[in-house]
Specification:
Layout lengths: L1 H8 L20 H15 L5 H4 L5 H20 L2
Helix pairs in contact: 1-2
Length: 80
């Protein structure tokens, strides 16, 4: 997921830090933010709600969200 953020922000993935704000630190504008959301949705096969979207304001927020989604998917798969 860091590669996607880095590509959209035009940054090297190795320079990204969890505390980096997408807008302030990485300079991601509204069209780029929408592109990022769409790519996350496609990669995870989910739809991100408005409530979840507000959590995705930093690199760390995106990482936490993705980890929670993957963990949730694993728990659902294990219960079947």
């Amino acid at each position: 997921m860091l590669a996607v953020v880095a590509r959209i922000a035009g940054k090297d993935p190795s320079t990204l830090k969890a505390e980096d704000d997408l807008v302030v630190d990485l300079g991601i504008d509204s069209p780029q933010a929408l592109e990022l959301l769409v790519e996350i949705e496609e990669l995870l096969g989910i739809e991100i709600s408005d409530e979840e979207e507000v959590l995705l304001v930093s690199v760390g927020g995106i990482i936490s969200f993705v980890e929670a989604q993957v963990s949730s998917d694993t728990r659902r798969a294990d219960s079947k």
